[in-house]
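Researcher: I'd like a structural prediction for the single chain below. Treat it as a standalone chain; there are no partners to consider.
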Amino acid sequence: MRATRLIGALGAAMFLGGVATYAQTAAPSAQTAPAAPTIAGLWVVQDPGSGSFNDWFFNGPGPIAAVRPEVLKLNAAEDALLKAGHVTNTQPQTPDCPRGNLPLAWASSGIQVATLTPTEFRMTGEVIYLDGRPHPDIKSPQFTPSATGHGIGHWEGDTLVADLVGFPAKSCDSRYPNYRVPGGGRISDTTHLVERIRLVDANTLEIVYTWDDPKIYLKPHTYTYYFKRTERPTDDPAQPTPTRKFLTDELWKAPPDSPK
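Model: Treating it as a single chain, here is the predicted structure.
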């Protein structure tokens, strides 16, 4: 009986020792696994070589939009005014003017900051909610349109699919009564935009845009931008929160020998 107990105790000790050894050897590999690339980061849009920002923005990186005849006339009239030198916005910017310019922001050559959390994706002023909420009632008087739209999204494998509505009917820009879209398109209050955002590789971001609007397009207008990952410029490091100091603090400071 005593021998049986001794053998059983030795067996249990060997089993527990094996479990502990496995835990000690398995844990480090899980902790040191490299993080997968993410769509978050700093990105720079890639101009395929147009050599001109106007060509790049107005003509776009892909096909020309198939638009309604009245939109073609509007494009031609605006282009003529621009060539004639009417390049300054003279319309007052009132508090009710729509904020932002989504197509222009995507096309600009500055560094784009993208952030990603489980509940939202942010880039170039737009917010894509990932928490399952629906779009609001964009026809409600309480809804305020914006030039970045209202965005919701979901994941399809490694692709973030963003759905945007709620754009303004007009802009506050005398040069462009309606916001322009690369390739000759426009934005109105019935515009619907779908963005498909994915990593081509660790340092290349692809965004496929599809614009649809019965007031503007004869068929959906699709084009693609590519962005390259970049590092924060060495001459633009993250800055600490400044300490506020007012001149009056010095003016009204009591002299050292003054009575307290």
